[in-house]
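Continuing the batch. This is chain 6 of the set; chains 1 through 5 are on the previous pages. Same settings as before, nothing changed between runs. Recording input and output for traceability.
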Amino acid sequence: MSTFSPHPIIWTSEKIRRLFDYYATYYDNSFFSTQFGRSIARYVSKHISIYEKSILDFGCGTGKFLEILSEFGPKKLFGIEITDSENNKIVKWGGVG
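Output for chain 6:
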């Protein structure tokens, strides 16, 4: 009988970039970004009025959450993402409003 013994992953900046790039290809259609993201946006809008406000999202990834927030009438939306993946469309999008 053999036992499974995983070896530790040595995280490099290249491995982290590849992991986030891979995840970004699926993020926009995932449950989190659609259902859970909408739940968070509704909760935030109940407690903080974002209507006619400017919003900055650090670590915005593909910008999906900003897209959801745009339905609540903010004046401007901006996203900053440090990864350089082609899947992070927000870098090209730049903002709404």
